[in-house]
Structures are given as C-alpha cells and as structure tokens.
Amino acid sequence: MDSIEKVRREIDSVDDAIADLFVRRMELADRIAEAKRESGTKVADPAREHAILSRIAAKCGPELEDAAKRIYSTLFAISRERQRFVMRGESRLEGVKVAVAGLGLIGGSLLKAAKAVGYETIAIHHGDDVKAVDADFLFVAMPPAATVPWIRDHAGAFREGCVVMDVCGVKRPVVEGLAGVERRGWVFLPAHPMAGREKGGFENSTASLFMGASMIVTPGDDVPPAALEAAKNLFSSLGFASTVVTTPERHDEMISFTSQLCHVIASAYARDERVADSIGFSAGSYANMTRIATMDENTWADLFLSDADKLVPVIDGFVERMLQYHDAVRDGDREALKAIILEGAEAKRRELKARGEENA
Fold it and tell me: Would you say the CATH fold of 251-355 matches that of 97-246?
C-alpha cells in the first residue's frame, strides 16, 4: 500500500498541472475574446457550453458527472468575465494618477486594481493628515457616515479637474450631505461598484474583485460629459464590464431589492435555531442562501436605515409573496403552488436570457 506522503506528492503534482492548464485556458479565453470582438460575436455561447458540459460529463462518468458540471459551470462564468473585459477594447489611460482614501475591502481592491493596470497610485488611510490630493481620480471608500464629513473636511485639498467618487451603497444621503460644498474646480461623481466579498478588510481585498462587475454612477447636472466619459474609461481599465448611469433615487430603489433585501433574507434565514444542526443536512442551496449572513452589523444596519423608505416596501412585497407559498402549502393547494413556483422560474429564465446566460 502506498504511503500517505507518496499519494500526497502525486496529488500535488496533479494540482500543479491543473493550475498550469487553468492559466493556459484563461490565456485562450483572452484570445477567443479578441477574435469575438473583431467578428462581432457575443461572449456567451450557450450551445457550445452545453456541448462541452455533456462531453466532460460523459468522460468523467456517472460518479463524477455532477461535480464536473459544477466545476465547468464556474469555469465558464470566469471565462465569460475575462472575455467581457477584453472585448471592452479599452486600454489603460495614459499619465493618470489614482488616489484611494479608505483601505478596506473595496478601497484596497480599487488600489490594487489600479496598481495592477499600471497607474500611479496614492493610498490614504482614514485619519491621515491630508493637505493635498494630487490625483486625476479619487475614490473615497468609507462608510456613508464617514464619507460625507471626510469629503467636506478635505474639499480644499483636491486639485482642479479631479474626479472625486464615493463608493457608498446608498446615494441619496451622500449627495444630499455634500450639497453646497465648494468644489473649486473638482468634480463629484457618486459611484457604487457592484462587487464585494463576505469578509471585509484590506487583507481580503484583491485586484480582480471588479472583473466583470458593473459600476453604477449617479452624476449630477454639474458633471461635465468629458469627466463622465473619462471615469467610464477608468472603470473599464480596472475590470468593470459596464457602467450604469442613473439617478440617486433610482439607484437606492433598485439596490434595496438587489442587495439589501438579499442580506435581510440571509440574516433572517440564518437566525433559525436549526442552523446549529445543519451540518450534514445541507448542500449548495443552503450555502448560497446563508453565504452573506456573516455581514458586518454596523455597516449593514447603517445601509438599511439610510435606505429605509425604499427597503421597507421591498420587504413588505417579499413577505406577501412568501405568504402565498405558506398558504398554498398549508392548504395543500398543489395547483396554486405549481403556479407560483413556475412564475418564479420563468422570471429567472427571462433574466438569464437577457444576460445571455441561459445555461449559467
């Protein structure tokens, strides 16, 4: 019988080979993206992905079929993100200096992404004695309660032409809080990167956090078109796949549904007493539902309360829909239950189709 160490060495060798092949596959994904860009072909190719999944599953056999499909589905998603980035066709802005104030998860990731692209960067810790910020772009990556006073206190330190952006998850309180601030030639562009991780802090930040993500901006009437376009090009070079331009009102309404409600649901779900006994009784659906329940209570309490007028109606709507399932199950109404399940499934399929990810 082989020793444990011998088998582990073989496993290490296989893992190294897999890592090399993964890097090679991503290089090929970049090449295919360039070819797709030139030919005008879409990123997603559901028919080809389905064919690959079927071929790989057959090769792995029944015991490993499901695991292989999960691995390759994730691989496809990563590949699509890289392809979308390459197909943007945006190159690094020349001679640009990027500053980041606040070095948590988002700020740290913005700083690392800017460095990875090759921009000159300035790192500013919350609490630093800042006399001047000599940068073309400044991201203020602090919680809403800290963002407004920091920008107000340092408004005279930003150089003329600088595009100053917050990254807060709510926009109206920030925009309203900075109304009337003397800008002396710099531009304020409210922004919200749609990316994150379960764990915060600089130690968990990464240059690839924004790969394939969208950036939402809510420019005021005083934002020059040239400044907005320059910011869009910056976002693209940092890995963002798209920039969504909207109003603070619309932003806060949609984020209450796509982000805040998800965190409320995850938190409420994780508070069930059966969570303590879930080991061995749970799979992917449970893990996905509870993944974000480990949110920071201070940050998210502030976000919920800052957007309460939008979030409360969204929670009400969710509770109403949950009661439809409750009543149908309680009453043994199979037809009603089938109808609402189908309604949800069809809504999700329409969304996936709109994204070009029917097989995601």
Answer: no
Residue 223 in tokens: 């934002």
Q: Which CATH class is domain 97-246?
A: alpha beta
Q: CB-based burial of residue 36 (10 Å sphere; 0-12 exposed, 13-18 middle, 19+ buried)?
A: middle
State the Cα–Cα distance between residues 40 and 63, nearest whole angstrom: 39
Give the integer Cα–Cα distance in Å for 266 and 148. 29
Tokens coding 154: 């340092």
pLDDT at 2 over 90: no
Cα–Cα distance for residue pair 197/195, rounded to 1 Å: 7
Domain boundaries, the chain: 4-87, 97-246, 251-355
Amino acid residing at 219: P
Q: Using CA atoms, how far apart are residues 250 and 172, in angstroms rounded to an integer?
A: 10
How confident is the model over 61-87, as a mean pLDDT?
A: 83
Determine if residue 200 is left, alpha or beta; phi over 0 gives left, psi from -120 to 50 gives alpha, anything else beta.
Answer: beta
- Side-chain-side CA neighbours of 119 within 13 Å: the count stands at 27
Q: What are the Cα distances from residue 329, in Å, to 234, 318, 326, 337?
A: 51, 17, 5, 7
Environment class of residue 199 by beta-carbon count within 10 Å: exposed (0-12), middle (13-18) or buried (19+)?
A: exposed
What's the rounded mean pLDDT across residues 195-218? Answer: 88
- Topology classification of domain 4-87: Chorismate Mutase Domain, subunit A (1.20.59)
For 251-286, how does the pLDDT look when each residue is reduced to its tens digit (9 = 90+)? 999 999 999 999 999 999 999 999 999 999 988 899
